[in-house]
Specification:
By secondary structure, the chain is mainly alpha-helical. It is about 65% helix and about 5% strand. α1 packs across α3. It has 2 domains: about 80 residues, Multidrug-efflux Transporter Regulator, Chain: A, Domain 2, CATH 1.10.1660.10; about 55 residues. It is elongated. β1 and β2 form a beta hairpin. It contains 6 helices and 2 strands. It has a two-stranded antiparallel sheet with strand order 1-2.
């Protein structure tokens, strides 16, 4: 028999806030919690393990839709690792694209800041650029 815990205990054990636990429940990433007669949510070790899985996937930047798929694959012992690898490599491509875009943004902002006098004058190439 697994030990049941309150949402606060599950939050502490999983490093996921109670607010996010309720959110993950509401969107179906985490099964609806059992309830006490007083209406308090109860979680077990399986729920906490799932929350840790979600938290780790979030820390790697996976979007919630992909985490839903990863959870289904994790729970399916008949899955092929090729599916998981494909999802992961697709995510790496997305991350690398975003990194390239962010580096371009940083270069542009550095260039604009370099050309801004940063003094008491009102003219500002940064604001001019933003205004188009």
């Amino acid at each position: 028999m697994t030990q049941e815990m309150t949402i606060g205990q599950a939050a502490k054990s999983s490093a996921v806030s109670a607010k996010m636990i309720r959110h993950y429940e509401s969107i179906g990433l985490l099964p609806k919690a059992q309830r006490t007669e007083a209406g308090y949510r109860l979680y077990d070790e399986t729920d906490v393990h799932t929350l840790r899985f979600i938290q780790r996937a979030r820390s790697l930047g996976f979007p919630l839709a992909t985490i839903r798929t990863l959870l289904a694959l994790w729970r399916n012992r008949r899955r092929s690792s090729a599916q998981v690898k494909e999802l992961s490599l697709r995510h790496v491509e997305d991350l690398e694209r975003k990194i390239t875009e962010m580096q371009a943004m940083a270069r542009t902002l550095k260039h604009l800041a370099h050309n801004c006098h940063g003094d008491e004058r009102p003219d500002c190439p940064i604001l001019d650029d933003l205004a188009g």
